[in-house]
Specification:
Elements: H1 21-47, H2 55-68, H3 71-91, H4 98-142, E1 149-150, E2 153-160, E3 171-178, E4 181-189, H5 193-213, H6 217-234, E5 245-252, E6 259-264, E7 269-272, E8 278-281, E9 303-305, E10 312-316, H7 318-321, H8 333-337, H9 345-360, E11 368-374, H10 378-383
Antiparallel strand pairs: 1-2, 2-11, 3-4, 4-5, 5-6, 6-9, 7-8, 7-10, 10-11
Helix pairs in contact: 1-2, 1-3, 2-3, 2-4, 3-4, 4-5, 5-6
Amino acid sequence: MPEPAIDLDAIADARTGKPGRLARYARRGVDLVPVLLILAGALFIQCAPDEISSQDFLEIAVLMAAALQSLRATLATAALSMVVQFWLEYDTGDVGSAASVAELVGQFTVCVAAVAINRLAAGQSRRLASARAIAAVTTQAALPTPPEEVGGLRLAASYRAADTEARIGGDLYAAQETPYGVRFVVGDVRGKGLQMVQTVSLVVGSFREIATHEPDLAAVADRLDGTVRRGVTAHHGLMSEETFVTAVFAEVATDTGTLRLVSRGHPSALLLTPDGGVDVLEPTTWSLPLGLGDLAPEADEVVEHPFPPGSTLLLVTDGVTEARDRRGAFYDPATALRGRTFTSPAELLREVRSAVVRHTRGHQEDDAAMLAVTRPNPDDRRAR
């Protein structure tokens, strides 16, 4: 069956991202509206005075079908409207009169215009679908899903772009096993469109290379800062001079399990303990985002924290921490998660994602990326 001009299956369930019950009900309702309008017009003309015309109902029905339905459905609606229009003229005995011919010609003209509108809208829909597919592939290439386990740590990642039509955004995450421990980055690019994709690809690719060879976590952040600045110079036009990236870097030492953090103007990491506690791991000093390091060239601070077995590190972007409800109140993951425990990092991210959707009622204004890292208990690893 040909695709409708407007794809109502894009109405997705806010929690799963898949077409939900609302989409199915909307599709059924839209399919019925043009026919109901035609029947309403036919009924109306039977009850209304002679000088009242039903043509407005029929024209609206055909135009609605053109905008919302497939070509086949539009043609069927147009044919039905012509049949009803002719039947109404016949029923009133006006067939052959100048007024009757004018109304039939007018309705036929609207039908032809509706078919043309449907074809134009369908072409637009196909182009949009192609753009969505390209954006999804591009984002997946620049931001691949990390494995479920790296270096003995269990991982889960989540990404939800604010621009759900284009399915593209500027948040990023990456995990890399290195000789110095397992290293992570979560960041947020300032920019739009291709600029964001360009910067995300640059940061993620450079992080994997630098993190593998640079023994000091602060040096990893410093070198990435230079990479972003050089990228702005080399790709001016795609990356504007105002491009920068807030980021938080994490390292879990393979031998001791010690957690090290470096923050570059990014929301603080959270540490969820096995007993339901939540610690906000704020840096003692704040550094500028990546790309702006030359404005304040002080060395980055590496902060160490214990990372006991059974604990989970949660790294998020400001699409989570700055999600607002109708009153303008921010979502606070530390408060929302305190006192709760989760069986896996994936379960934790599902809960936070659902909570953000509930808090904002689905009106997400910024991209939201999350990375959860769990250090398993030794008993859990033996059981597996």
